[in-house]
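ok so i was messing around last nite and threw this chain in just to see what happens. nothing serious, just curious
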Amino acid sequence: MIVWVNGAFGAGKTSACRELTGLLPGSVLFEPDTVGTLLRATLPPGRLAEVADPQELPAWRRLVAETAAALAGEATGPVLVPMTLLSQQHRDEIFGSLAGRGLPVHHVVLDPVETILRARIATRQDVLGDAGSRQRSREALPAYLVARGWLAGDARMIDNGVLTPRQTAERIAEVVRSGAARCPIVRTEGGDGDTVAAAVLLFDDRDRVLLVDPAYKPHWEFPGGVVERGEAPTAAAVREAAEELGLRLRPEELRLLAVDWESGAGGGGGRGGLRLVYDGGRLGPSEVLRLRLPTGELRDWHFATLREAAQMLPATRLRRLVAALEARTEGELRYLEGGRRAATGAASAR
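result:
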């Protein structure tokens, strides 16, 4: 289990987590600032100069997720992570990586009123360090106030303005035990092996393809998901369309367009395996109006042109989409590896 304690600088995250270690048996404290220190000591100065904050480095986000997951494998209790995280995209990436490992993530935000935050920033030199650090913390406060909108809808907010660190920790322990702060998207399929996943391409009357914006992932996706144990891929595609979009598709109406082998190596901790892409046909205006997204799982949907999709999808998925669209036009199944066409027996014979 991961307990991510979020909030503005000066909200009391680290102090509360230190107290929390005595309330949640077997818990360990992991401060992601140590990852930033490692990267600042390791990366070339030119690379560091390109970012204003270590969180902007993909390496920081990947190492934070992998370290938290590794600690969870060693600890008998939860991993406590006191860290300000204000970018929704970065949250998607880190929490998605943890969820992909089957780790429940509890997200808590310490949210004292602005006047208390400013007072703490001004007076707590033991935590924030020199005057320059305090100034940077004051400058970062507006970013927290802007991010508070999506944080309030994602996490359990705790006003700890008049609470001691011990009282704050007791409140956090209470919501963690009750499950009130648990993020809704946590994949529970066990193991680290390869998976089979099925996706459905759906089109509007302008032949634009439907993409969905999943919570806790940094990119848009095709509708679909992992095939469950004992389930046929076509049945999984139908099930996912119903669960994610409220659509009732019939298996016999789906046409397989592409089979893509995706490697799990070097992909930010994700698992590899076979990815099957089906053509689900066109949706009429009345069907589009009836699209329904599951609360907490998908944030939005969008019919995208290929040009738009190039800005919304990671490179491998974009290649997979292009190949599937070609297969749809030409009526010929594509076998891919990493989104690229691979040699088949027939091709090799020629």
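not much to say yet. The CA atoms of residues 119 and 170 lie 23 Å apart.
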